[in-house]
Amino acid sequence: MADAPQEPTYESVAREFAAPLQRLAIGYEADAERQRDLLQEMHLALWRALPSFEGRASLRTFVHRVAHNVAVGYVIRSSRDQLSRCVPLEEMEERAAHFDGRQIERRDEVERLAMLVRSLRPNDRQIILLYLEGFGHAEIGEVCGISPENAATKVHRIKRALAAALEPGDGHGQR
């Protein structure tokens, strides 16, 4: 009987994935009140989606796919102003050059990274947040609906762009 799979309950899933879901909300939203709203939307979606969990993917992958879909929908529904601030990877170095000294001094490296991640387009943001949660390329591909090779390439490009943007100085890293 110990080998029989047990259907996950919402309560057990909510407890097990509380911290990763909180980090995901922070990765998509800077404002604390809006983070709570987004987290609540994620939990509601998980509660609704859990009965459809068939075990074809790991529970971890399933939970992150549901949560990321909610987060991407949240970003899309956000104001057009917020979306207009999202930048493609190619412009990340240029955007980093616009941080003024006072702004950088007030934020530590983690906050700067979070700001840069939040400025990425939703698909790129999803990929790097999964990577930061410890997902491998195959798992990222499964959650995002892309090949593991494509996931690896995108992770590499995003990491390179973020590293360049975080370099001290004028915001332009060495190539």
Any key phrases for this structure?
mainly alpha; Rna Polymerase Sigma Factor, Chain: A; Arc Repressor Mutant, subunit A; 69% helix
Q: What report would you give on this structure?
A:
- The chain is globular, with a radius of gyration of 17 Å.
- It has helices at 10-16, 18-28, 32-49, 59-77, 80-84, 92-96, 101-106, 109-119, 122-132, 137-144, 148-166.
- The chain has two domains: 1-84, RNA polymerase sigma factor, region 2, helix turn helix motif (Rna Polymerase Sigma Factor, Chain: A, Orthogonal Bundle); 87-175, Orthogonal Bundle (Arc Repressor Mutant, subunit A).
- The chain has 175 residues and is mainly α.
- The model is unreliable at 170-175 (pLDDT under 50).
The description of the largest β-sheet is:
none
User: Helical content, roughly?
Assistant: 55-70%
Rg value = 17 Å
Number of helices: 11
CATH third-level topology of the largest domain: Arc Repressor Mutant, subunit A
Report the uncertain regions: 170-175
**What class, by secondary structure content?**
mainly alpha
Number of strands: 0
- Shape, please? globular
Give the averaged pLDDT, no decimals.
82
Oligomer: single chain
Q: Give the helices and strands as they follow along the chain.
A: HHHHHHHHHHH
Q: What fraction strand?
A: under 5%
